[in-house]
């Protein structure tokens, strides 16, 4: 996968939200009194990258567990070997492993075939390490062919609000219902699906409600209400993705923050004159975690630990790290500390914020008792 395509896929959800007018309904649930630590405190770990070396992956997952104090990790990708390798390392570290297979642009048959392969691998791991969960896919209305018209994810995202896409939620539910029947005999752990906010999923066959839920200018005022509404399904709620880029104004863009990169240029460069500001990412993550804790969410996964294909640069227009969601940054190829040669990364300010939020002995006991429920 090229750098441009990989980076663009990060923000597909945001594009789909823009082209679809659907949002969480007016369901009201009383606010939780006070805040409580999240039982599942997680980090997304994207396995779609140019450089994949076991020693780098092990170092990064160790940091997620020991430095960020996460107790869960969500592994997303389309390479079974990478997913399995990362999952084994994470399970050995004591992390609750969540698999999220992605068969980009495959049809229903190809998608289900890949999910079944991942389910078998996840079950083998679960027999050794019980804390393993599985998502049946991510935002399939745009990432899977056949539910919405379009030859690729971008065309499908743009078509979501058009008349020819009517009924895509019914088609999605038919696929997911069949997938649950197929996967349940293969995998004995928790099942979820990583949904986009424009998708209306029938959650009855799942153990956990999973939603990619970014806050942006369009839902800033209603964000807590949207999180609260997810409890209407009567199941544990997990925010499978949330996060922010590191430039001024990125908090208003949410999941669309990556779109300031012009990938048609060589080398790629940022549009306009964005100003790097890691404090934006810090405040965004803090505020979202406040909402999740207040609304009694079971878990949340920050997107994303590392984006090794979008390095930092001291020259603002080439600072691709400014336009990604990672909580660590890497150096460019011409640096003595280039990631591809050294695996070196440096924490951003948000790294320390997350570590502080997720640290604490009371959290460990909370997590331990809830894992058996």
Structural class: alpha/beta
| CA(first)-CA(last) distance | 39 Å
**Could you give the order of the helices and strands?**
HHEHEHEHEHHHEEHEHEEHEEHEHH
Indicate the low-confidence ranges by residue numbers: 1-33, 361-373
Q: Estimate the global geometry from the Cα principal axes.
A: globular
Strand line-up of the largest beta sheet:
1-2-3-4-5-6-7-10
Please write the CATH class name. Alpha Beta
Strand content: 5-15%
Task: Explain briefly what this protein structure is.
The protein is of the alpha/beta class.
Chain-wise SSE layout:
Blueprint: H1 3-10, H2 12-19, E1 40-46, H3 54-66, E2 72-77, H4 80-92, E3 96-101, H5 108-128, E4 132-138, H6 140-143, H7 153-159, H8 168-183, E5 190-195, E6 209-212, H9 223-229, E7 237-242, H10 250-253, E8 261-262, E9 269-270, H11 278-294, E10 299-302, E11 328-329, H12 339-342, E12 346-347, H13 349-358, H14 361-371
Parallel strand pairs: 1-2, 1-10, 2-3, 3-4, 4-5, 5-6, 6-7, 7-10
Antiparallel strand pairs: 8-9, 11-12
Helix pairs in contact: 2-7, 3-4, 4-5, 5-8, 11-13
């Amino acid at each position: 996968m090229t750098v441009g395509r990989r980076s663009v896929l990060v923000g597909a959800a945001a594009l789909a939200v823009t082209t679809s007018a659907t949002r969480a309904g007016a369901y009201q649930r009383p606010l939780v009194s006070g805040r409580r630590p999240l039982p599942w405190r997680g980090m997304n770990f994207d396995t779609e990258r140019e450089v994949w070396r076991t020693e780098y992956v092990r170092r990064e997952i160790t940091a997620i567990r020991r430095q960020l104090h996460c107790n869960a990790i969500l592994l997303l990708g389309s390479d079974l070997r990478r997913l399995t390798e990362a999952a084994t390392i994470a399970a050995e570290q004591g992390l609750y492993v969540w698999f999220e297979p992605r068969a980009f642009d495959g049809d229903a048959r190809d998608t289900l075939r890949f999910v079944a392969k991942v389910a078998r691998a996840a079950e083998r791991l679960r027999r050794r390490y019980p804390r393993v969960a599985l998502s049946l896919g991510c935002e399939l209305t745009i990432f899977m062919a056949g539910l919405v018209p379009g030859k690729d994810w971008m065309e499908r995202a743009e078509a979501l609000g058009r008349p020819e896409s009517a009924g895509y939620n019914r088609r999605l539910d038919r696929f997911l219902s069949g997938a649950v029947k197929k996967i349940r005999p293969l995998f004995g752990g928790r099942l979820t699906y990583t949904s986009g906010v424009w998708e209306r999923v029938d959650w009855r066959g799942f153990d956990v409600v999973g939603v990619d839920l970014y806050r942006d200018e369009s839902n800033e005022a209603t964000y807590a209400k949207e999180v609260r509404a997810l409890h209407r399904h009567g199941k544990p709620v997990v925010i499978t993705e949330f996060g922010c880029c590191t430039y001024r104004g990125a908090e208003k863009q949410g999941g669309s923050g990556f779109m300031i990169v012009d990938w048609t240029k060589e080398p790629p460069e940022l549009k306009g004159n964005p100003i790097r500001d890691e404090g934006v990412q810090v405040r965004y993550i803090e505020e979202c975690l406040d909402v999740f804790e207040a609304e009694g969410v079971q878990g949340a996964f920050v997107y994303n630990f590392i984006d090794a294909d979008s390095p930092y640069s001291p020259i603002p227009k080439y600072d691709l790290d400014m336009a990604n969601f990672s909580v660590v940054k890497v150096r460019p190829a011409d640096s003595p500390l280039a990631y591809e040669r050294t695996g070196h990364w440096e924490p951003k300010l948000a790294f320390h914020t997350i570590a502080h939020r997720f640290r604490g002995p009371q959290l460990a006991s909370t997590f331990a008792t809830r894992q058996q429920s």
